[in-house]
Automatic annotation (TrEMBL):
SUPFAM superfamilies: Nucleotide-diphospho-sugar transferases (SSF53448). Keywords: Cell wall biogenesis/degradation, Glycosyltransferase, Membrane, Transferase, Transmembrane, Transmembrane helix. It is a multi-pass membrane protein. The chain crosses the membrane at residues 33-50, 62-85, 526-545, 565-588, 600-622, 655-674, 723-740. The active site is at D152, D455. Its main location: membrane. This is Cellulose synthase-like protein G3. It comes from Manihot esculenta (Cassava). It is found in: Endomembrane system. GO terms for cellular component: endomembrane system; plasma membrane. GO terms for molecular function: cellulose synthase (UDP-forming) activity; cellulose synthase activity. UDP-alpha-D-glucose binds at K122, E123, D152.
Length: 741
């Protein structure tokens, strides 16, 4: 550790090799210049709106200008938040190859990995097992490595899968290290170049047989006798009595592998593998994933108390066994360790189709914006793929919030075996339903409660407290996860995020009030995420108002001949072009970008809007929202359609209705406008922008028309949805004609 900063006193010692470097991105000066020019253009637009408002000749034109003004204010606000993330983008590099100059492998700090799962049917246990195996096989001293699985589904099926995983690990881990395999998730490995190694075939057979057993047990919904190999297992599974339900059960903590005893087939120690399902009762609030993680922080504190914690979703598997060493490049630097709370890797996805029709990559959220936030304060936490210093969960960098028990202190040294009576008893105690009562867990300690996007909310709170973080984006992706491949799953996920973001915006820690006082630019950058729920305002207005106006022969934008037209052209093309360039620079394709902007519109019209409604209903006490887990189980037919790039509507959902309405309204207005012009009843003059907008929306709406009229597969639009969507369009048209005429 010493010498890292080159503070040695001997004459001219060679400078120590770096563990990490950071530099400002080359594009920053361009971004700043563009921001300046664009700001002037935005001001000019507001001047135009103000003038139109002042000189409006009727209530109607006043109302239309007001709608446009409000929409443009929302757009401009979101634009300024994005600029906060463009002013200081940084690029970091790590040099794990230099690590051995500072620290020997035996001295590596311990690492506790948390894997969350919550439902054996939406999150197939075999995938969770694959995730666990990929991190158990980290190229890291196994006596320093512990993997904790949190099962909020309280499912014996998941536990069964992990008893199988424990057995398979003793073959899989030595196989990976002996052959220096990079791809240590068995499923991903067998799908790629597995035949290169002599034992591959045997490993594959073993894997398939394990998978078969796990899947059969899940299918049958219980662990039958033939799958139980010893009395110990029988005893464990017998905890699932008839009274044991997902919402109501005692804590189950099962040590499946103990690194002080268990060895793999080549005689090396295996890492710890611990299954945990915290106590649940209907009478207490469990705070969803945040609650699960806080329980794990305490359970692991009692059992191993590693100073570094990796938090993973059940679908996020490791793609690079060297990742922990990369993380040590930061955490082993004492200066970094004092103030840097976590190291976040981007969420990247496997299994997306070629053009990523649902924009599941979230390129802006996970790749383009984080280096910008990193330049201000540190990249944000995304719930998965984040390595934390345990200390970050216990107060600010300068003042520690002391835990309730000395054993929970992040600096406490565990000196008892993890299976000792005392340790297990304490682990049960700290994972009980009532442990958090009257404590500041979720308030000042651990993951913060109160928002369904506990990840963004917590990292924002940590940043406000003074913690910094690192966005680490190595060339070989550290992790891969899965994104939903059915539109309704995407929508439901986005609806939940919307509710969570609104909970954040309307909390006492809102980025526009609390945060601005703490760290203005950083908070403004967080607003770019937190204020997603205001996208529906401009998107809905631009999807319907110009079109209704066109249908009623009203011109609401400057005509082409007017110099103001240039302003509109610049604002539209400027924003879109910058976005496209950034997207492509982040390894995107033009087609992916096109799909991404389409999904932005779709989310705005639908999931964000429904999320907004849900939030209002929740606030009024009319309904409550839970954490509806994203479905990760896929059906073959659906996969095939997804591979072909077809949108999956398939179910009748109110969330599809606005899409139908908007698609038809634009088609109708464009068609009507065109026919009027062709017939010579009116000229293009004055409605050019409205025609262009409708045309743009029509091109974007292709998958909706296709799903309504041209497809016969099970993913097509349900007739009910189409009918309601069409009905709504006519109602809007009639109302519009009544008002606008
Ligand atoms: O009560 C719960 C609900 C969920 N989970 C787990 O949380 C993870 C994320 O859930 P998922 O349904 O996949 O949500 P997504 O919206 O896909 O996840 C993103 O958004 C979440 C909320 O912001 C973050 O927690 C995630 O890390 C992030 O990947 C999964 O491993 C679940 O098993 C729990 O452990 N307990
Ligand atoms: Mn997920």
């Amino acid at each position: 550790m010493e010498g890292l900063r080159g503070s040695s006193t001997t004459a001219n010692p060679p400078p120590p090799p770096p563990l990490h470097t950071v530099q400002l991105m080359r594009r920053v000066p361009f971004n700043r210049l563009f921001a300046l020019v664009y700001t002037v253009a935005i001001l000019a637009l507001f001047y135009l709106h103000a003038r139109n408002l002042y000189y409006s000749t009727s209530l109607l034109s006043f109302f239309i200008t007001l709608c446009l003004l409000i929409s443009d204010l929302a757009l401009a606000f979101m634009w300024t938040t994005a600029q906060a993330l463009h002013l200081r983008q940084i690029r970091r590099k790590q040099f794990p190859e230099n690590l051995n100059k500072f620290i020997q492998r035996n001295d590596y700090p311990s690492l506790d990995v948390f894997i969350c799962t919550a439902d054996p049917y939406k999150e197939p246990p075999i995938s969770v097992v694959n995730t666990a195996l990929s991190v158990m096989a980290y190229d890291y001293p196994t006596e320093k490595l512990s993997v904790y699985v949190s099962d909020d589904g309280g499912s014996v099926l998941t536990l069964f899968a992990f008893t199988e995983a424990a057995k398979f690990a003793s073959h899989w881990l030595p196989f990976c290290s002996k052959n220096n395999i990079k791809e240590r998730n068995p499923k991903a490995f067998f799908e790629s170049n597995y035949f290169c190694f002599p034992e591959s075939e045997i490993m594959k057979t073993m894997y398939e047989s394990m998978k078969g057993r796990v899947e059969t047990v899940v299918e049958r919904g219980k662990v039958e006798d033939e799958y139980i190999t010893c009395d110990e297992e029988r005893q464990v599974f017998s905890k699932w009595t008839d009274q044991f339900t997902r919402q109501n059960h005692p804590t189950v903590i099962q040590v499946l592998l103990d690194n002080s005893k268990d060895k793999d087939i080549s005689g090396h120690h295996l890492p710890n593998l611990v299954y945990c399902s915290r106590e649940k009762s209907k009478a207490s609030h469990h705070h969803f994933k945040a609650g699960a993680l806080n329980a794990l922080i305490r359970i692991s504190a009692v059992m191993t108390n590693a100073p570094i914690i990796l938090s993973l979703d059940c679908d996020t598997y490791s793609n690079d066994p060297q990742t922990p060493e990369r993380v040590l490049c930061y955490f082993w630097d004492p200066e970094v360790r004092a103030t840097y709370g976590f190291i976040q890797f981007p969420q990247l996805f496997k299994g997306l189709n070629k053009t990523d029709i649902y924009a599941g990559q979230f390129k802006r959220l996970f790749q383009i914006h984080p280096p910008g936030l990193d330049g201000l304060r540190g990249g944000n936490f995304y719930g998965t793929g984040g390595f934390f210093s345990r200390r970050v969960f216990f107060g600010t960098p300068s003042t520690m919030s002391p835990p309730e028990l000395p054993q929970l202190n992040p600096y406490h040294v565990v000196n008892k075996p993890i299976q000792s009576q005392e340790v297990l008893a304490l682990a049960h105690q700290v994972s009980g339903c009532h442990f958090e009562k009257d404590t500041d867990w979720g308030i000042k300690k651990g993951l913060r409660y109160g928002s369904l996007v506990e990840d963004t909310y917590t990292s924002y709170r940590l940043h406000c407290e003074g913690w910094r973080s690192v966005f680490c984006n190595p060339e070989r992706p550290a992790f891969y996860g899965e994104a939903p491949i059915s539109l309704i799953d995407v929508m439901n996920q986005q609806k939940r995020w919307t509710v969570g973001l609104l909970q954040m915006v309307f909390s006492e820690y809102s980025p526009i009030t609390y945060g601005l006082r703490h760290n203005g630019l950083m908070s403004h950058g967080y607003s770019q995420i937190a204020f997603w729920p205001i996208w529906p305002i401009p998107i809905t207005v631009y999807a319907f108002l110009p079109q209704l106006a066109l249908l009623n022969n009203l011109s609401i934008f400057p005509q082409v001949k007017s110099p103001w037209f240039l302003l509109y052209a610049f604002l539209f093309l400027g924003a879109y072009t910058q976005d496209l360039i950034e997207f492509v620079l982040a390894n995107g394709t033009v087609q992916m970008w096109w799909n991404d902007q389409r999904m932005w519109i779709i989310r705005g019209l639908s999931s964000f809007m429904f999320g907004f409604l849900e939030f209002i209903l929740n606030s009024l006490g009319i309904s409550t929202t839970g954490f509806n887990v994203t479905n990760k189980a896929v059906d073959d037919e659906l996969s095939k359609r997804y591979e072909k790039g077809l949108f999956e509507f398939g179910v009748a959902s109110p969330m599809f209705v606005p899409l139908v309405t908007a698609a038809l309204m634009n088609l109708f207005s464009f068609g009507w406008g065109l026919s009027e012009i062709v017939k010579g009843k009116r000229s293009m003059e004055g409605v050019e922008i409205q025609m262009l907008l409708s045309a743009f929306a029509v091109v974007n709406s292709w998958p909706v028309y296709e799903a309504m009229a041209l497809r016969s597969d099970n993913g097509r639009m349900k007739a009910k949805t189409s009918v309601i969507g069409i009905g709504l369009m006519w109602v809007m048209y009639a109302a519009g004609s009544f008002i606008l005429k």
